[in-house]
Amino acid sequence: MCGFIIAVNEPNLLINFKKNKLNAYNHRGPDNTRYFSNKNISILFRRLSIIDLSKKSDQPTFSENLQYTLVFNGEIYNYKELRENLINKNVKFKSNGEAEVLLKGFINFGEKFIHEVRGMFSICLWDNKKKKLIVYRDRFGQKPLYYYKTKRGIIFSSEIKDINYLIKCEENFEISKRYIYRGLLDKGRETFFKKINRVLPSEKVIFYNNKLIREIYWKPKILEYRKFDKEEFLFRYLENLNIHLNADVKLAFLLSGGLDSSSLVAGAIHLKKKIKAFSILPKHTINEKPYIDSLVKKYSISHDYIDIKETLNGENFEKVLFHQDEPFQGINCFYQFYLQREIKKKGFKVLITGDGGDEVLGGYDRMFLIYMDYLIKNKKENLFLKILKLRKLNKTEIISKIKKFNYSLQKNISDFEDNSILRYLNKKTIISNSRIFHEKWNDLNINTDKNLFKKTLFNSIFTNDLQMSLRMADRNAMASSLENRAPILDHVFIDYVFSIKTEDFYIDGKSKGMLRNSIKEISDNKIVNRKRKSGRPGNDIYFIFFSVFDELIELLNISNIGELGIDKKYLLNDMLKMKKYFKSKINNFDRSTRQAAFFFFRLYCYLKWKNLQKII
Hints:
The chain is of the alpha+beta class. The chain is 43% helix and 14% strand. Helix 2 packs across helix 3 (98-109), helix 12 (366-377) runs antiparallel to helix 17 and helix 22 crosses helix 25 (591-612).
């Protein structure tokens, strides 16, 4: 896990950065820093050593004839297998690390070698003879990569702040509005900064002759040929987990009371791995302790509860926001940031998390109705009725909701649940921003999408849900020089999941039914049979109305939120009334109640971000 910045055809651009920021932004790679430059390319690389801790694996990595230069950030989980295949072709190695395997793999097999690589990564390969840069981002976007096109060349970087230091960029106001109005984040190529773009998940970018060529090199195939088999599912799940546990440093696990993280911990124990797990129990959130303690007790897991000593205030919030570079989703990001900082203090370098479980296996409540719609359209009436009975649901009500869902698709009606902002906007603003208000969270096309359920999973992986979570997870982990691994996000495993028949995704009528059914023999029944899904830790209501309320009022008073079309006077008066209302609702975890605070969180986060970036 590392970080880098590359400038092509901009020979003087990194000189100033090297002098002034060489050690200032070294959180992504505190173990080693290298600078390389010739007349065509400059590279600044920071290394966090995880595999092959020796100097032989420092980057950049060069071919013997110096034609090729490679840098990469991430982990290649099958690098040993790839290395062995290359050795069998008489390829010689000087190190035991991944970077040399990637370099020699591309040299010997060409660009098609990327299809053999299993991992999370951002890879840059420079051909000094052709003066061509080839860039790859991993299939799910776990590792970040941004770029800025200059007049003569291009800059690529692991983080926005490095580019922004070199070339001060203006706010991308359209992206800001999408965030404030709809909570949209990390969707598409654009960022909160004009002209700073992200390389998309599964994207290959070629920079040659001062031109950009982009293409998607992988996407999961939506298939329906495989029947669910719990033994096969568990075997593949554990095989995938096992390759994610390879490291030459200490590993830790995040453990909540949810299915995803507990299944990973239970799976690692089944694989005879030494486990150290950490949990957090913020105030005013659903109590996960009974579920966590049940698994810990069952397997005598070495486990710590981390008490976040930092108070929920604006100053500590700014530290998180600095590392995130852009506004984020909710206060859970704050807790994750400080939890991971404490884990790092205990000597760990790698952290295993359950990110991706809901998106890949169908864990969100809103997915259930789309699944039931699939059963009706594909004449699975017996299974439809069985699930209604298991969930004690009214058939008439569910069919009515399905009809409403299909009507919304036919009429192209937005599916957003949170419309809190509308009461504070004037009509002119709503009309002039109609494109934003017509956007969908789950963008489905009833005419072209043959399987709406699996297309929903696809959207959840590659748009808002997972992408905003992965950005948050990467920046928070790297702020403490931790490597964040999400084993569920493996393309081989997900190709397998997407080949299973849709009807099998809700075994016994339960969300993530295939995982529950497969893992129950080696996990804890209290968690596996848990009915209520808990959200990420943290309470936005408590944070906004009882931790930073006065600061938010002050920020609003000095800000120009009129440019967003917001009626400031009405908003401020309304907030005072809402504080009284929320005083009795702090511990109400109903989603509709919590949603009322989401808009105010976004407003606070955005205004803090503008101040931090000195955007007026």
